[in-house]
Amino acid sequence: MDHFDYVDGTMRVEQVPMAEIADAVGTPVYVYSTATLERHVGVFREGLAALDNPLIAFAVKANPNAAVLATLAKLGLGADVVSGGELLRAVAAGIPADRIVFSGVGKTADEMRLALEHGIFQFNLESEPEAEMLSKVALSMGMRAPVAYRINPDVDAGTHAKISTGKSENKFGIPYDRAIESYAAAGDLPGLDVQGVAVHIGSQLTDLAPLEAAFTKVGALITALREAGHDIRTADLGGGLGVPYDPSQPLPPSPADYGAMVCRVTQGWPVRLMFEPGRVIVGNAGALLSRVVRVKQGAKAPFVIVDAAMNDLLRPSLYDAWHDIRAVAPSGKQAAANVVGPVCETGDTFAMGRDMDVVEAGDLVAFMTAGAYGATMAGTYNSRPLTPEVLVSGDRWAVVRARPPIEALIEGDSIPDWLAD
């Protein structure tokens, strides 16, 4: 559920007309709904209500906007970060460091020092050399780093290959069959407090079976590690729960279904459970608002050329991802169309042969379910400025990231002395 609805024939986000935002800020622009964020946090938390004090750490990579993070911080969420920059963003937005988990395969020594200085809750280590580096960094600071190993359970998540992370050929984590050996080595490293196990098998999962298979392996590993003398106190079960993009497809499992499965599989585990939801919290809370530049006739269907492009919303180009495309003020007529952006790439395509609202030049369209992996993956290809972002709360709205002028992009370059003349 989201809070993008039609009132008197035009789309509103909560109580604000989308056209009002477009007229004031320009397009393209990302628009986020506070009410939807609040609802999704509540639903996810309700799904885990039977658990004892779980840590829900929002995956910052899904949407790092400061206003979004501040909203989630007020709702009590922690953060899952994968870079020093994300760590600083989370802290600046008010998320306490003792609710922050640091994941990612390429943490540098400087990022490790930064995280230790802030006192984060846990490092999710992804290799033995990373454990050795963190040991040296922690020793140099006279500290002990709380750690878990991320386990690669060799489970196929059944999602797109580019967002699958739990198969043996993926770069993430240590192999399940090497875990006992790796934990033994980590336990001998000074400066490390080996406290947990972590797993994350992919994103946009629409079936609970792969998650259950992975969690079952984690449970067996926790038992084996504790029998080997390790004081395992946490289990990070990752994120990945999917959201509905295509209304013609079956709905993904609900947080309630997910929570029931987790409770059943983890019953009796002597650990604090942790979760890293991202898309399921922010996906449906955002839309990318765009204006039609022109419509031109194609060989089979018209091309609807909009002012949003692949540099604003990369997912369709990168993953062949579906986003529902709706007219902000629909006429009631529908027809097949190809929706494309202005970037000089054939890949700058949002939909081909899509049955959708008939639109004309100047009309507004909204790309739905764009709150996750939208603005955060945006770039400046074709010298296009980054997309602005707006947060709505009831009848109030504010620009929470302004569109930078193209001059700022140009001024970021420098011309060497030998070309200055």
TrEMBL record:
Oligomer status and interactors: Homodimer.
Binding site for pyridoxal 5'-phosphate: 240, 276-279, 373
Pathway assigned in UniProt: Amino-acid biosynthesis; L-lysine biosynthesis via DAP pathway; L-lysine from DL-2,6-diaminopimelate: step 1/1
Gene3D superfamilies linked: Alanine racemase (3.20.20.10), Lyase, Ornithine Decarboxylase, Chain A, domain 1 (2.40.37.10)
InterPro entries according to UniProt: Ala_racemase/Decarboxylase_C, DAP_deCOOHase_LysA, De-COase2_C, De-COase2_N, De-COase2_pyr-phos_BS, Orn/DAP/Arg_de-COase, PLP-binding_barrel
Record's catalysed reaction(s): meso-2,6-diaminopimelate + H(+) = L-lysine + CO2
Keywords, ordered alphabetically: Amino-acid biosynthesis, Decarboxylase, Lyase, Lysine biosynthesis, Pyridoxal phosphate
SUPFAM superfamilies the record matches: Alanine racemase C-terminal domain-like, PLP-binding barrel
A Pfam match: Orn_DAP_Arg_deC
Gene: lysA
Residues that coordinate or bind substrate: 279, 315, 319, 345, 373
PANTHER family, A to Z: DIAMINOPIMELATE DECARBOXYLASE, GROUP IV DECARBOXYLASE
CDD domains: PLPDE_III_DapDC
Broadest EC class assigned to this enzyme: lyase
Enzyme Commission code(s) on record: 4.1.1.20
Record-listed N6-(pyridoxal phosphate)lysine modification sites: 61
Domain annotation Orn/DAP/Arg decarboxylase 2 C-terminal: ranges: 30-371
Domain Orn/DAP/Arg decarboxylase 2 N-terminal: 49-282
The keyword Metal-binding is annotated on this UniProt entry: no
Source species, domain of life: Bacteria
Cofactor list: pyridoxal 5'-phosphate
Organism: Sphingobium xenophagum
PROSITE patterns for this protein: ODR_DC_2_1
Job description of the protein: Specifically catalyzes the decarboxylation of meso-diaminopimelate (meso-DAP) to L-lysine.
The family this protein is said to belong to: Belongs to the Orn/Lys/Arg decarboxylase class-II family. LysA subfamily.
Protein name as annotated: Diaminopimelate decarboxylase
A GO MF term: diaminopimelate decarboxylase activity
